[in-house]
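REQUEST FORM: STRUCTURE PREDICTION
Request ID: SP-0412
Submitted by: Lab K.M.
Chain count: 1
Length (residues): 160
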Amino acid sequence: MDLILWRHAQAVMLEEAQGTAFDLPRDLARALTPKGERQAARMAEWLNQRLPDTTRILASPARRTQQTAEALGRRFRTVDSINPLASVDDLLVAARWPDAREPVLIVGHQPTLGLLAARLLTGQDAPWSVRKGAVWWLRSREREGDQQVVLHAVVPPDLV
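STATUS: Completed
RESULT:
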């Protein structure tokens, strides 16, 4: 199974007052910046040249992830459980890892995407950084009776 992690492209910053609690509705409403729109378009072009037609595309309900996913010009499904506060387990359940028959592309958020990549590649949750607009392409395979995860590609938007 291929699992492609795509962090949303650059979005407007959430301006919070000092000491104010995180405001999920305001965070979900953040849109891409013009630079983010360009990042999403470039990465979408790169992905569209490589993604099989059978790829299942899942996106967080956040506006910035919706805009990033829309750049692909393909149908995608909004999955509430992969919102900015999602856990690694939430993403794994949504993707049906490692048992899905089709490749899965998740358009989501940090720090969960980095934690997910670390867990799959090392077996431990570690705070790995996934750059805005970047794609991490992971592949699950069986070798000699053992399940392995292979890092297929890491591509930041400034290299496409």
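NOTES: The CA atoms of residues 44 and 50 lie 10 Å apart.
Reviewed by: T.R.
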